[in-house]
Amino acid sequence: MKITSIRTALFCSPLKTPFKTALRTVENLEDIVVLIECDNGFIGYGEGAPTAVITGETLGTMEAAISYLAPMLTGLSILNDFEEILHRLHTRLLHNTTAKAALEIALYDLRSKAENKPLYKLLGGTQTTFDTDITISLNDIDQMIIDSLKAISLGYSILKIKLGNDPLQDIDRIIAIHNAVPKDTILRLDANQGWSKEDSVLVMKTIEAKGIISQCIEQPIKADDIAGLRFIKERIQTPILADEAVFNLAQAIFVLESGSADYLNIKLAKCGGISEAIKIANKAKEFGVSCMMGCMLEGPIGITASLHVVSALCDVITMIDLDAVALLSKPPTDCSVVFNESKIILSNESGLGIKYANK
Ligand SMILES: [Mg+2]
Questions:
Q1: 228 in the same domain as 96
Q2: Is 282 domain-assigned?
Q3: How far does residue 70's CA lie from ligand 1's centre (Å)?
């Protein structure tokens, strides 16, 4: 089962409403899909969402990275050379983590198709039904309350509130949303690097003093300020979740050893794919630290791949933030994976159980 061709395509879809964080506003999802074909006719599908402000990648750099790596992987066997393929993928080009993740997803899709089993089973998982949170974009308070109540009406019980443009307004946002939603709603807060460490302590201590419980505060300060995360962690009750601070295993180990965060957010697009995500989760487990599986603005292939990984590591990946398909104006209907707002159910088909369909 040798690789004969590697090509890319675009997956484009408008979002229901603009996705707004402290870093960016996005109205249309535009992702790269990877199609790897083998000499037995099998095709593996992968996907990655270029996120210039986080990974430094664009549609153009992803296409260039994939076409640069393609000849180094072509001709190798999915069954006999799988480790060598992954080794070349990760050592012959630095960075470009989303491009590598898209390639790896397609490779694992093929590998599990070759073994005629769903990817989660190849990775050792059994769970197939999952519940994701949903992102509440950063807007004025009235809009965020409308969006939160709409999400609750659609069945979501966990809201991920985007913050980070103004600490005092952010306090008002959290209080207003907390007061508006049912009391059993779980709140996750994400400032996307938008606060200073002093702002972070101010915001979190203020809402903690009001008895507002949030499951975590995600990446309150700049990605490279690990000492700052520790400063905040020592002063607040709410657990800190490191996102942009942790791309790869080395950074995960640094954060874990320094005790700078309570949780890690793993994203295939940050770490370079499934193999590194598994290593990060296993390392976090050694430290007794739980993880979130997050995503960029990915379509069905990327989200499905992430859930296969969660299935295999659900004892350590305890939080699921894989809502990107739910944000699409037209969710996929022609696939065997079920996307029904917060509920996502993997199929028993071999591989990912999903194909490229740009409709
Ligand atoms: Mg985040």
A1: no
A2: yes
A3: 31
